[in-house]
Write a structure and sequence with these properties.
Elements lengths: L6 E4 L1 H5 L8 H13 L4 E6 L12 H7 L7 E5 L3 H9 L4 E7 L2 H8 L3 H17 L4 E6 L12 H14 L3 E6 L6 H12 L7 E5 L6 H8 L6 E4 L19 H10 L8 H15 L6 H10 L2
Helix pairs in contact: 2-11, 6-7, 7-8, 8-9, 10-11, 11-12
The structure holds 3-hydroxy-3-methylglutaryl-coenzyme A and magnesium ion.
The site of magnesium ion has 7 residues, from loops.
Protein name: hydroxymethylglutaryl-CoA lyase
EC number: 4.1.3.4
Keywords: Lyase, Metal-binding
Length: 300
């Protein structure tokens, strides 16, 4: 990758739809396939978690089975434990993600165990993933604040990120789960983590609850981060973080990055059309200002 190439991980079908009203399997399939047609190369398709905890993701296995896959695209899944990983292997996910938290309360609410217990659990997941040659991504939630504890210490973020990296995750995605960060704090957090994990192995996963995600990313680009997670049309939130609105909209991120001379290989208008279609299915308005603008132009 050259220095102006940016990797986007599209999380709308997972992080987005896990917190929306349930949609039919066919609509999920159409969403994933149209995003891949738009040039997305890394896409979270779903998660293998307890259907009692997140019923919206209960059909992830069926979705993986049904997808028409394109060579060179990573079809990713969240796997909290061995049971989830086995399901992801059976569904032929090409990459999986484990997810920890920098805050104890969020860890308990989200995955029903302490941070230390989660790391223990994830080491078993990593061992099985390694046997199957599956790349594993690691998430750290609550890197800029926790819905239950408020401020989160930078040392806690850096410690959990380093633990996941040492377990063998090829990349650590730092999640502002409730979108409370501001640019200087985001940059300080990245600098703290980068002392323990190489910056090339970091990604940012910012929810846009307070409308700060783009500004925060802009503050972190000069630090060398070249991978960002986003959700088409700004879908979603997190079921265990009340008030967390969707991730940063992919369309908004693409517009900013392309305008600043970065390359993503993704067609903004095609992403906006995919987002528009799923918003119609969900009966919700489009959470991306850029999508609204580019779609209004094409509808003239
Ligand atoms: P638990 O209840 O402690 O698990 O949940 P358990 O091992 O005691 O099992 C209880 C039941 O769940 C059993 O079924 C298991 O078989 C079943 P029962 O005998 O009662 O019928 N079970 C499973 N079923 C399907 N798939 C599995 C699985 N594991 C157990 N993998 C568990 C622990 C981790 C499973 C649960 O807490 C859970 O599913 N949590 C997931 C919550 C979640 O998906 N949160 C959203 C994703 S994270 C996120 O959005 C943040 C992120 O975007 C980054 C950011 O923004 O910060 C990534
Ligand atoms: Mg998230």
């Amino acid at each position: 990758m050259t220095n102006n190439e940016v990797r986007i991980v599209e999380v709308g079908a997972r992080d987005g739809l896990q917190n929306e009203v349930p949609v039919p399997l066919a609509a999920k399939q159409e969403l994933v396939e149209s995003l891949v047609d738009a040039g997305i190369k890394n896409i979270e398709v779903g998660s293998f978690v307890s259907p009692k905890w997140v019923p919206q993701m209960a059909d992830s296995g069926a979705l993986f089975q049904q997808l028409c896959r394109v060579d060179g695209v990573d079809y990713m899944a969240l796997t909290p434990n061995l049971k989830g990983l086995q399901a992801a292997i059976d569904a032929k996910a090409s990459e999986v993600a484990i997810f920890a938290s920098a805050s104890e309360s969020f860890s308990q609410k989200n995955i029903n165990c302490s941070i230390d217990e989660s790391i223990q659990r994830f080491s078993e997941v990593m061992a099985l993933a390694k046997q199957h040659n599956l790349p594993v991504r690691g998430y750290v939630s609550c890197v800029l604040g926790c819905p239950y504890e408020g401020e989160v210490e930078l040392e806690a973020v850096a410690r959990v990120a380093a633990q996941l990296y040492q377990l063998g995750c090829y990349q650590i995605s730092l999640g502002d789960t409730i979108g409370v960060g501001t640019p200087d704090k985001a940059a300080a957090m990245v600098s703290a983590v980068a002392k323990q994990v190489p910056v090339e192995a970091l990604a940012l996963h910012f929810h846009d609850t307070y409308g700060q995600a783009l500004a925060n990313i802009n503050a972190c680009l000069p630090l060398g981060i070249r991978c960002f997670d986003s959700a088409v049309a700004g879908l979603g939130g997190c079921p265990y973080a009340a008030g967390a609105s969707g991730n940063l909209a992919t369309e908004d991120l693409l517009y900013m990055l392309h305008g600043q001379g970065y390359q993503t290989g993704i067609d903004l208008l095609a992403v906006a059309k995919a987002g528009d279609s799923i918003c119609k299915t969900l009966g919700r308005s489009n959470g991306s200002k850029v999508a609204q603008a580019v779609l209004a132009k094409t509808n003239k």
